[in-house]
Amino acid sequence: MAAQRKSLVTAVVWATAIAGPAGCAAGGEVKAKGSSEKKQAVAAPATKAPGDPFGGLTADQIADKAVASTKAARSVRMAGRVDSDGEQLTVDLAVDAKGSCTGRLGMQGGSAELRQVGKVMYLKGDDKFWEASLGAGSDSVTDLLKGRWIKVPPGSSDDMDDLCDLRAMIAEMDKNKAERQGMTKGPDAEVGGKPAATLVKKQPGGATITMYVAEEGPPYLLKVVKAGGDSPGTMVFTEHNRPVKAVAPPADEVVDLGNVGLESAAAAGAGAGG
Question: In which band, very low, low, confident or very high, does the pLDDT at 269 lie, cut at 50, 70 and 90?
Fold first, then answer.
């Protein structure tokens, strides 16, 4: 599973990576929702304009609050697509902070169902998915995997270990501290029927990042759109704090990764993709 394996990870991590430039509090400090956040709310400017749910905060300050609230969420569902090197990757995953994960991945016209229970991941792909993932000469393996789940033990690939790691994905928001500021407010919008503030940032190279932040309830990130530049795409965030129910598939439907000769391919693929 050469570079494609890493591309699947990229499709998931992309959502938080592009939020990074907008994302975190100045100086690297992002506080989870709690008493300190309440104190900040009390200290908000008294010049709150009618209809302004953020009390006159700047675009950068709203982005700070959005990332802080999203970091505090126990779980989230992210769904969307990213175009990478002419290839469209799709993601629809519900992930929690305990290692549970369930959803679907798509690439090159194929798709796969994914579950993670604890630290063990299971993948069940269609023929096109495995052909895209494994590359040429994979017919015999594809036949073996037809209608079955692959068990991916922890440690088989660092990239796959991060795929359902909510904490790792959230940490990506805080990765690029040099590009946090410079957001501007756009017109109000709706995401899934929820009113949202829009925050816009133009990046070097022609890309534009637009963040949509909930105006009612906790100011969660609702959507991130990257237009232009490398890896454009859209990711929508829903179901914050909703329990993620991931159940291991029946044992007689599972093939262990190492038993089908894919473990060495996974290790080789991680190197090829990096």
Answer: very low
- Distance in angstroms between the alpha carbons of the first and the last residue of the chain: 13
Q: Classify residue 101: in a domain, yes or no.
A: yes
Residue with tokens 């989870």: 32
Query: How many structural domains does the chain have?
Result: 1
Domain-located, residue 224: yes
- Above 90 in pLDDT, residue 193? yes
Domain hosting 152: range is 59-256
User: Do 73 and 240 contact (CB within 8 A), yes or no?
Assistant: yes
CB 148 within 8 A of CB 22: no
Q: Region 79-89: what's the mean pLDDT?
A: 83
121 part of a folded domain: yes
Q: Which CATH number does the domain housing residue 137 bear?
A: 2.50.20.20
Helix, strand, coil distribution of the chain in percent, nearest 5: 35, 30, 35
Domain membership flag for residue 262 = no
Is the distance from CB of 97 to CB of 167 less than 8 angstroms?
yes
CA distance linking residue 213 with residue 202, whole number of Å: 17
CB count, 10 Å around CB of 261?
11
Query: Phi/psi class of residue 246: alpha, beta or left (left: φ > 0; alpha: ψ in -120 to 50)?
Result: beta
Which tokens hold the place of 21?
């430039």
Higher confidence at residue 32 or residue 130?
130
Query: Where are the extended beta strands (E) located within the chain?
Result: 75-84, 87-96, 101-107, 110-117, 120-125, 149-152, 184-185, 189-191, 194-202, 208-214, 221-227, 233-238, 254-256
Burial class of residue 204 in the structure, from the number of CB atoms within 10 Å of its CB (0-12 exposed, 13-18 middle, 19+ buried):
exposed
CB of 158 closer than 8 Å to CB of 13: no
Q: What is the mean pLDDT of residues 127-151?
A: 77
Query: Which of 151, 40, 133 lies closest to 87 in space, CA to CA?
Result: 133
This prediction has a pTM of 0.74
